[in-house]
Structure formats: C-alpha cells, structure tokens
Task: inverse folding
C-alpha cells in the first residue's frame, strides 16, 4: 500500500517527542509541518541543494529535519539542525513550485525562533536587530545620508499619520493615502532610491518618523518581534505603504494584509504609471544606444507575493529587457545572509555573475536594497563594467533624461585596505571580518 | 549503529571522507523517499563519484554483509529507497553528466544521476525527443527512472522507460562493472539483461551509465480537454477513440474531486460541474495533429461529452499537462493522509474498473478520488483520510486490498508504473504466484549472493 501522507506525529502526538531527547515539540505549527508529502518537487528550485546535492540542504530534507526536531528524534542542538537553519537562504523559491502548498517561509521562521533562541543567534544579527528596533537610531541613519522627505509642514505629517491610524483600523484605507517606507538600511545605503520614488510619485508622503518593518527580526529567529515592529510601522505609515524593498513588502503584507502594502513596481503598474524616456549608453562609436538591462527578482516579492511581471514590464519600457537564466533565483543577499555567511552568499551569486556577463548587459536592475548591495559588491569584486541599479533609479533617470553611471565604479578602482586585526575596510559599505576568516558555520566549506 | 566503524573508515577511503555522512542529523533526511508512510534511518550515506567507487563500495558491502540502498532523487512512490534494514544509502546524484547526444544515431549516453528534465531539455535543444515523461521528471534521475521503469503521460503512443533503454553500465553487488546492451536496436546476443535491470528497483545491480534512445522532435503538439458527466462516460470515450484507430500521445483522466484539487492549485479555469475530465493530446505534423484532435473531439461528443475545447496556445497546453502531473500532491490538500494506488487493467475494462473502485470505496465508507492514464488503463485511485482516524485508515487499506483483487481478476496488475518497493511486496505474490516469486529469488541470488542490495524489496 502506498500511503502518501503525514505519518509524522502532529499536534496530538508531539508530546511523545519528549521521550526522545526531552526537548522536542511545540516548535512548529503541526498543520504547516503536515502539509509536506515529501514529493521532492522543491529540490530543483532550491539554491542550496544545487550547491550541495545533499537532501539535508533541500526544502524536503529540511522539513524532515524539522519533523525530527519536533518529535524529539534529533537533539534540539543537533549540529546539522543548527547548520541547516542557518544555511537555508530563506528565499522561498520552494513555495511556488510546491503543489501541496507548504508554507516553508513560516516553517523556517519557527525553526529559527528555536535554533537562534537567546545566545544562539549570530551576534551580528543581534546587533543589527538591536539597532533597527530603535527608531531614533534608524532616523539617525537617515539624518546622515539624507533620503527623501516630504516637503510639507511637519504638522501636516502628523495629521496624516493620525488620520491613517484611525482610518486603517480594520477598514480599507482611503485611496489618496500613500506613504513611502524608507527602509532602515536603504535610507543609509541607497538614499537616492527614495528620492527617485518621489520623482516618480510626487504625491507620495514620506513621514520621517518611521522605524523598521521587522523583516530582519522575523528572518533571524524573532518572529514575534517581527510582527510587533510591522504593526508599529503600520501605525506610523498611514494608508497604502509603498516600499522599494521586496523583502520588507512580503513581511509587511503578511502582518498588515496584502491590500495595505504595495511594492514599488506593483504600485506603479496598479496606478497606471507609464514609464517615460529611455536609458541609453555609449555605443562605442560616438553615439548612444538603448541600454541592455537584466533583472534580479526579489525572492520574497516573487515567491511570497507573486510579483515578477511588473518590474520586467516597467524596465522593458525604458530599456531593452534581457531575460537571463536564473534571474528569478536568489542572489545570495537573502536579508542578513550575505553578512552572516559571506562565502555561501558568493557561491550563490557567482553563476549569476557569469550569466549576466555572458548575456552582455549594461545594467542589472534590483527591486530590493539587499540584492542591490549584493550585486554591486559582486560586480565590483570582478571589476565588471556592468552596473547594478535600483528600478526606481532606472525609471527616474529615464524620465529625467539623465544618464546613469557606466563602467567601473570609482570604489572598485580603489585598493582594499587591510587592517592588522584581520578586519578590512573594503569597497563601499563593507566593514567586516575577512570572509575567509569568518567561516560562520563551516558546513559549506 | 549496526554498521561497524571499520566499514565506515573503508567507505571514507573509497569515496573520500567528505562524501560520507553518519551523524544522526546528516542521515535523517535519507530516512524516506516520496513514500512518507515508510521511514527508516540508514546507518550511513555515501556519494560515490565514479563506477569504480560504486564497485569498491559494493565489494566492501558484500564482504561485510552490509545492506546498500541505491538512490537517485528519492522521488519514487513505493518506498523503494527506504533503508528498512539499515545500511548504506548510496546517492548517485554526483554522477550527473550528459556524456553524449547523437542526432545521427538518435541516442544519448548519460551518467545515472542526471535529471530526467535535464536530459529531455538537452535533447530538445538538438531537435530530439526523450519520450519517457514521468510526472516527477523535474526531480527524478534517469538512473532512477530506469531502475523503476518509470511510466508517465506519454505511455500510450510512446511506451514507457523500458522502451528507450538501449544499454547500461551496471555494477554488480560482487563488484564487477559490466556493460549490457549498447548502441543498437538489434542485438540478441545473450539474455536481455538490459530489460531485466530495467525495473529491477535497485535489487540486482547499481546502474551508473545509461544509453537511451531518442526520437526526432515532433513538429508540433496540442492538447485539449473534454468534460463528461461521469468517469465511466470518459472511459467509454477512450474506448471509442482508440477503437477508431487513433493513438494519441496523451489520454489522461481526472474525476470530479481531482479536478477540484488541481483547479485550486493551478487556477486553470477548469469546470467544476463535471464528473470527469479527459485530457487528450497528440504530436506530429501539424495537419495530422489537427485532424486527430478533431476526431478525438468528435468521439468525445458522440459518447456524451458536456464540452470539448482545444488549448488555444502552447503555454495553455503546457499548463494543462503540468496540472495533470501535480494531481497527486494537489489532492493531498484535501486531507491529512493521502493513500494512493496504481492498479492497472486492460484499457477496454477501464470504465468497468472505475465503477468497481467506486463500489468498493462506497462499501468501505471511504472517499475515493481517481485520476490516471486512461490510454494505458493505469488508474491512480486515491483515498484521502484524517491521519488520526485509525479506523478510516484501516478501511482504506481494506478497500485497496479489494481493488488489487479486482484488478487481478480483470487481467490487470497491482502496480502499473510506481513499482513494488517495500510498499507492495506483500501483494506481489497475488500477481505473480509462488513459482514466479521463487524464480525472482533465484535471479536475485544469482546477481547478489550475499543479499546486500536493497534487501526487503523485490526478490526478497
């Protein structure tokens, strides 16, 4: 008899897991865990399985590990459990290909809540979380780097915000309310992006008093904190929240509801925005030609919210869109992943760098600041002449007839400064331990 | 651990320490394949990179009497790769190269661990068709397909995996590496070991390289859908289509419950008021395909179809076929335990069998949903129950016992394409009889005197 089913104990029997190592049970929502029928359709979609060809690094294998954790068959501090909870990119590429409807992203959040509880959380993630949950600190980043701000009297903002809180209390927001989420790191790393959005959507308001959306927490073992921050941001930003970060969009939408959150490209298409102008580059013969542009999807935007056609349509209107194999798969940025596991993040990005190089594009467009940073550092490392830009920048430059930068970034031409401690100051915003010295978990070595 | 530490050390010497795992968390993911009711944790997992390494592992296993379970992608549906007696799971996915695609000879030579879709795509890029089309093609390996003799959606016109295997490189449990068959369609020198190994479910040898036949890619293909009031009506339509001399590439059916489940997953706009859906398709020259689909449509209408529509474009046709491939996982959304079977009857008795299944399920008070390959008489009756309802699970198993008996009484079989594995071994004697079971054991012993290869499965 072939029984395709959930032989694994669910809620009713999870308590028996205590007979094993005495710690299993109550980590996962049993209904979510029961969904998986182990068909394996997720294997070809998983970037880490592609790297290792080891079932344990696949979504199906990780769910088998989660079940073993839940039932107590594996020790809660089992080495492989710890490694896999960290090695998983959390890109959720397994979700759209799953015919059984497994919500892997939710399972991973629960897993990391357990695996990265208390002192088990990587210290770097801990520090970042401490920073972004303090709104004044986030605002300080903004004060230094000067992202967009609403050119309206400050009391206007306050009024709008107050109205939003009242209006969104369980009801659909008024259509005219539109606020831009600045993102905690984007406002520091890429302050130009929010300014570009203001040019595209002049009516959008940008309240200064806005904190972090909590995606960072949800993905780093504090899903409760992630929900609380999203709810707080939902109060700070009235009406429909437009975000230029796909990862934040998916997390916010999961907490606040799909109707309240629009990723930028999604919003532009919904609002009927028609791209104007054209992005051109030097044709090498003294003239100009239309730029060739590839895209990097944001994983959570594509796999979580199902948005992938919109950014392609928009950039295809102002440049030549070049489909590149794997443009929908993770670039290795994956939230804090590229900081916590730099070597694995590079292994994920490397074949994609080859692919855009082969495709001969001028720009790679990102719809998430983390991906943008990952591509910029990856391209600079190879001294590639391809540039990575945010979709908002591309559209605003086309509309303004402004030329986007081309060729090797200035930063990529500078030598890397090595410091005696093993720390090094690299290009752009990298200040971290040497990647080779920082082998976070060793598994992928 | 039942496997001696010294065996593990030798294993590490053979494939390299980085390709052997024994820690509990590392072997746990290999405790199951796509047959979740079966679970057994192996003692070790090894990833050999060459046939020579496989041979050394098998020699070691034979001399030390350690079970070896060969595994591709672990997508089989009969627990064929579950280590029921412990031992070493040998994962063959490192050997994943496409060695040759020859348009002149219409064949491809591949390593065992290459994915079925990768082979099909590479062949397609050269205008060639790898015809076997199992539902798990994006996941499964070619070696796994051959070992299980995988079927699929194109069986009626093109046959199944066995019809495309020209040659193998196989490693015997005693360590010999040998080639069977080769590059020839005509070759009667000796027993047809290639056929014997195809569908041997990893019990006779470990396949490390395959030579498979390709076909010229058909110029065009199209797909259509017909809705019927009942599944028995659809079965009669299948008889009528083939009775009129049409052998389409695809003839798949879904009953009402399957239609609902697939629609919920794939959102194709399928009708929700029909008792059965017949998915038909053909490939070949444009005018032949057009004419055949039109004639199929006529036969469907003549046998009482509520509606017949053709896919308006290739993307739509692909979507319909993909939807059919995901019927099983989509059905699993209906409950917490999905018990699937694979009984097969001669095609003219399909409608009769469907009625029998419904009657059996009704008598045992279990809900049944049936889909499958109508052109091959290959049914997938599926019972979805609550995993905590032991009584319902027991009734479901009793019902399937009767379904098997019914299939055999109609000159059918207990499994058309999923295989025997550990899951259906108890029923095999009903199909083969005692004498043939004994012969299977003698064949097994000739290949595997120590009985180390996938014990507890075929030939045990």
Result:
């Amino acid at each position: 008899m072939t029984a395709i089913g959930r032989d694994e104990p669910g809620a009713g029997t999870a308590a028996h897991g205590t007979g094993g190592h005495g710690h299993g049970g109550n980590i996962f929502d049993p209904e979510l865990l029961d969904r998986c029928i182990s068909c394996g359709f997720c294997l070809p979609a998983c970037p880490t399985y592609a790297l290792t060809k080891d079932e344990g690094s696949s979504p199906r294998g990780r769910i088998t590990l989660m079940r073993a954790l839940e039932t107590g068959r594996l020790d809660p501090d089992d080495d492989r459990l710890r490694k896999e909870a960290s090695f998983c990119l959390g890109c959720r590429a397994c979700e759209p290909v799953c015919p059984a409807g497994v919500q892997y992203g939710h399972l991973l959040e629960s897993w990391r809540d357990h695996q990265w509880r208390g002192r088990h959380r990587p210290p770097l993630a801990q520090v970042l979380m401490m920073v972004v949950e303090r709104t004044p600190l986030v605002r300080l980043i903004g004060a230094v780097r000067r992202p967009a701000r609403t050119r309206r009297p400050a009391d206007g903002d306050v009024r709008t915000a107050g109205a939003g809180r009242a209006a969104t209390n369980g009801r659909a927001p008024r259509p005219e309310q539109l606020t831009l989420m600045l993102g905690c790191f984007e406002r520091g790393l890429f302050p130009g992006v929010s300014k570009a959005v203001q040019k595209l959507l002049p009516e959008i308001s940008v309240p200064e008093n806005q904190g972090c959306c909590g995606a960072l927490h949800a993905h780093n073992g504090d899903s409760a904190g992630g929900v609380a921050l999203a709810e707080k941001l939902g109060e700070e930003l009235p009406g429909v929240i437009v975000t230029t970060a796909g990862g934040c969009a998916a997390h916010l939408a999961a907490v606040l509801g799909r109707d309240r959150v629009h990723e930028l490209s999604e919003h532009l298409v919904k609002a009927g925005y028609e791209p104007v102008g054209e992005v051109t580059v030097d044709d090498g013969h003294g003239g100009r030609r239309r730029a060739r542009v590839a895209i990097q999807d944001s994983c959570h935007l594509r796999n979580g919210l199902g948005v992938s056609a919109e950014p392609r349509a928009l950039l295809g209107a102002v440049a030549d869109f070049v489909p590149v194999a794997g443009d929908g798969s993770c670039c290795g940025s994956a939230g804090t992943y590229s900081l916590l596991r730099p070597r694995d993040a590079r292994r994920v990005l490397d074949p994609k760098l080859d692919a855009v190089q082969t495709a001969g594009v001028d720009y790679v467009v990102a719809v998430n600041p983390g991906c943008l940073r990952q591509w910029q550092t990856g391209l600079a490392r190879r001294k590639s002449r391809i540039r990575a830009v945010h979709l908002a920048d591309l559209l605003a430059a086309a509309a303004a007839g402004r030329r986007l930068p081309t060729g090797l970034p200035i930063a990529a031409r500078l030598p890397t400064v090595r410091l005696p401690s093993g720390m090094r100051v690299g290009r752009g915003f990298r200040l971290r331990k040497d990647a080779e010295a920082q082998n976070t978990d060793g598994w992928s070595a | 651990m039942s496997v001696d530490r010294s065996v593990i050390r030798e294993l590490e010497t053979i494939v390299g320490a980085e390709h052997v795992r024994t820690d509990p968390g590392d072997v746990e993911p290999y405790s199951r394949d796509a047959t979740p009711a079966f679970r057994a944790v192996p003692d070790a997992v090894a990833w050999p990179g060459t046939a020579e390494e496989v041979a050394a592992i098998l020699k070691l296993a034979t001399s030390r009497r350690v079970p070896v379970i060969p595994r591709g992608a672990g997508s089989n549906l009969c627990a064929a790769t579950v280590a029921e007696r412990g031992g070493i799971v040998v994962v063959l996915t490192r050997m994943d190269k496409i060695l040759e695609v020859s348009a002149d000879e219409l064949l491809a030579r591949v390593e065992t661990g290459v994915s079925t879709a990768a082979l099909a795509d590479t062949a397609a890029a050269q205008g060639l068709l790898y015809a076997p089309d199992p539902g798990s093609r994006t996941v499964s390996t070619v070696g796994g397909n051959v070992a299980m003799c995988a079927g699929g959606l194109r069986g009626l016109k093109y046959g199944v995996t066995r019809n495309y295997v020209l040659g193998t490189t196989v490693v015997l449990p005693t360590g010999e590496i040998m080639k069977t068959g080769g590059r020839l369609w005509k070759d009667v020198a000796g027993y047809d070991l290639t056929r014997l190994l195809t569908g041997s479910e990893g019990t006779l040898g470990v396949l490390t390289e395959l030579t498979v036949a390709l076909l010229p890619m058909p110029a065009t293909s199209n797909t259509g859908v017909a809705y019927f009031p009942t599944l028995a009506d659809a079965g009669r339509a299948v008889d009528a289509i083939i009775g009129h001399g049409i052998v389409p590439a695809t003839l798949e059916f879904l009953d009402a419950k399957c239609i609902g489940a697939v629609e919920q997953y794939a959102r194709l706009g399928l009708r929700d008021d029909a008792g059965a859906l017949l998915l038909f398709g053909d490939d070949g020259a444009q005018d032949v395909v057009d004419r055949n689909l039109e004639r199929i449509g006529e036969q469907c209408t003549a046998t009482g179809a509520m509606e017949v529509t053709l896919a308006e474009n290739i993307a739509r046709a692909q979507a319909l076929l993909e939807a059919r491939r995901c019927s099983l996982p989509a059905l699993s959304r209906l409950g917490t335990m999905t018990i699937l079977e694979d009984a097969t009857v001669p095609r003219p008795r399909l409608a009769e069998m469907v009625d029998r299944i419904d009657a059996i399920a009704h008598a045992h008070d279990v809900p049944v949903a049936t889909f499958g390959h109508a052109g091959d008489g290959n049914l997938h009756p599926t019972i979805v129950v609550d995993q905590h309802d032991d009584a319902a699970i027991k009734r479901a198993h009793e019902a399937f016992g009767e379904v098997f008996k019914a299939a055999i009484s109609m000159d059918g079989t207990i499994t058309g394409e999923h295989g025997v594995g550990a899951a259906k071994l108890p029923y095999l004697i009903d199909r083969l009889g005692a004498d043939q079971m004994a012969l299977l054991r003698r064949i097994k012993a000739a290949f595997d005197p120590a009985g180390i290869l996938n014990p507890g499965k075929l030939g045990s």
About this structure: The longest strand of chain B covers residues 220-228. Chain B has four domains: 5-91, 98-216, 220-325, 330-409. Chain B has 15 helices and 18 strands.
